[in-house]
Amino acid sequence: MSEVMMTFAENEQHLRGILALQKLNHKKNVTAQEATEQGFVTVSHSYELLATMNVDYPHTVALAKGKVIAYALVMLRKFGDEIPVLLPMFARLNDLIYRGQRIGDSRYFIMGQICIDKDFRGRDIFYKLYENLRKRTQNDFDFILTEVAARNKRSLRAHEKAGFETLKIYTAPDGEKWHIILLDVRR
């Protein structure tokens, strides 16, 4: 087993590594069985957007022998207009209530995506990525929010185990059912 190091996306090689892993695990590039058993990602980022998102709050990457084998993308609220498929999510989030607090009035960011190379799954890297994010963001944010497709059972279970709570379940116009989930980083 090779050693895994958690760090920030610091250079073009890290960003290109994120994009390569994202492409391999995109829902269009995995079989239905893989999607069910291993999970998938739904958004493809351009290099330019990924690099811009990385400026204010760098993405977390896990490296093995210098190669990106996992990542967690930080998407600040200001990027809500940059990815059209995510516009409805941002609109839904702001009016949700968590423990008496309107989400739109809180300090939150979106987990832009989290993904782990198939060869490194089952090694607690998922939880290490989130623990890294929690420690790094708890002074600046209240919550991490994201959406997970209901059929992505592996991801839902992993997020629940990491401390995420479901705020709302809804069905998108295309019939896909989604869970809006939240992690309180202040705890």
What features would you describe in this structure?
Helix content is about 30%, strand content about 30%. It is an alpha+beta fold and about 190 residues long. The protein has one domain: Aminopeptidase (3-Layer(aba) Sandwich). Strands 1-2-3-6-7-9-8 form a seven-stranded mixed beta sheet, sandwiched between helices. It has a two-stranded antiparallel ribbon with strand order 4-5.
Please state the structural category: alpha+beta
Strand order of the largest sheet: 1-2-3-6-7-9-8
Provide the CATH architecture.
3-Layer(aba) Sandwich
How many separate helices?
Answer: 6
Mean pLDDT: 90
- SSE sequence, one letter per element: EHHHEEHEEEHEHEE
User: Which percent range fits the helix content?
Assistant: 25-40%
Shape: globular
CATH T-level fold name = Aminopeptidase
Strand content: 25-35%
The biggest sheet amounts to:
7 strands, mixed
Strand count = 9
**CATH homology superfamily name:** Gcn5-related N-acetyltransferase (GNAT)
The CATH C-level class name: Alpha Beta
Our count of domains comes out at 1
